[in-house]
Amino acid sequence: MEAIYLDHAATSPVHPDVVEVMIPSLKENFGNPSSIHRFGRSNRHVLDEARSTIASSVGAHPKEIVFTSGGTEADNMAIIGTAMANKDKGKHIITSQVEHHAVLHACEHLETLGYEVTYLPVNKEGRVSVEELKAALREDTVLVTVMYGNNEVGTVQPIKEIGELLQERNITFHTDAVQAYGLLDIDVTELSVDLMSVSAHKINGPKGIGFLYVKEKTNLAPFLYGGEQERKRRAGTENVAGIVGFEKAVQIMQAEKQKKTELYLSFQKEMLAVFGREGIDYKVNGDPEHYLPHILNVSFPGVSVESLLTNLDLAGIAVSSGSACTAGSLEPSHVLTAMHGETDRAFSAVRFSFGLGNTTEQVTKAAEETVKVVKRLKAL
Fold it and tell me: Where would I find the Aminotransferase class V domain in this sequence (predicted)?
């Protein structure tokens, strides 16, 4: 039985070329970049080169890139760091109800410290309203954090419009671009963002490495204390092997972005064609115009998503649910609940996400197996 992995939005396989470039950093080039001897200087040069490559991928200056352990740390650093650095200006933060938990839980933490957070609702497609955001702004608003592309349903938010609005008011703007990076063209200047989070393991890089873009002169309190690495913004010896792997993943990403986008869109089209041809009842979740090409979230009304996932796994197909099983009871995803309420649609959603190694044949087989399981479960 062939194993088919369609959960790339959760994590992606490391590209073989990324593995190859990391090996020397793990075996031979072990110097600490902060050391002044040749071993340290050699890795400092490697670090600087990688920072330049990664910065150029988003139109940033190398000194505006802060390496982190991944997207979660970058989100926490942006949100908590901005709040702490600007508490004399105000304690109001705006975010959306459909953010990644790294953002939502950071905001909830700040609420325990006396900050006030406005959680913007979204429409049925999962998009925030720029007008509602504008209406929520206050004199004491110090930060707005809205994700670029949603990790569950793939909806892309109006980041450029929000950035332009906030630039006029001199309010710090952060976006979590973990899912969007690598598939959408991103230029931090055009988007008018001050802070942006990215993770390597979503673009076939290693786990444990990411970055936070910090626009020059952005007021941000350090999140870690110790050494003076990352221009005193993130203490700790740099993960050189991870950064080297990240750089290679970025180079591959830039070369293949257009081809991947077209391929993933064809996968979405093929999967939905199979569902339509077989006549099963399904509903696509997300925005039909503003969406990420690699994520397809589908609800199968009347079907237990827990049973569906289990049966697909037994058939060798790895996908994920828009729901989380907690303490033995299935709870609907906060994203789908924000979009549709606690309805059957929220309880029956499955996320298919495409990436490295997937083929049209695999997608067709996965769709056909899904149809079989859905029909079988509905018959029961």
Answer: 4-364
Which pTM does this prediction carry? 0.96
Q: What is the pLDDT of residues 83-135, one digit of tens each?
A: 999 999 999 999 999 999 999 999 999 999 999 999 999 999 999 999 999 99
Cα atoms found within 13 Å of the Cα of residue 3, Cβ hemisphere only: 4
What is the C-alpha separation between 310 and 341, in angstroms, rounded? 25
User: Cβ neighbours of residue 291 under 8 Å, at least 6 residues apart?
Assistant: 149, 153, 154, 155, 156
Amino acid at 142: V
Residue with tokens 């609005």: 165
* Residue 107 is among the residues annotated as catalytic for this protein: no
How far apart CA 360 and CA 364 sit, in angstroms, is 6
For the stretch 254-287, pLDDT in tens is: 999 999 999 999 999 999 999 999 999 999 999 9
Q: Which two tokens stand for residue 248?
A: 């290679």
Cα 20 to Cα 202, 207, 355: the distances in Å are 18, 15, 20
pLDDT band of residue 326 (cuts 50, 70, 90) is: very low
What residue has token string 């700040």?
110
300 closest CA partner among 204, 367, 229: 367
Is the pLDDT score of 330 beyond 90?
A: no
Mean of the per-residue pLDDT values of the chain: 95
Q: For tokens 């040749």, what's the residue?
A: 38
Q: Which residues contact 100 (CB under 8 A, 6 or more apart)?
A: 71, 75, 147, 151, 176, 178
Q: Tokens standing for 5?
A: 């992995």
Q: For residue 92, what is the enclosing H or E element? A: strand 92-96
- Of 124, 125, 196, the closest CA to residue 159 belongs to 196
CA dihedral 298, 304, 305, 306 (to 10 degrees): -170
- How far is it, in rounded angstroms, from Cα 295 to Cα 142? 32
195 secondary structure, DSSP code: E
Q: How are the residues of the chain apportioned to helix, strand and coil, as percentages rounded to the nearest 5?
A: 45, 15, 40
Q: Write down the catalytic residue from 237, 310, 325, 359.
A: 325
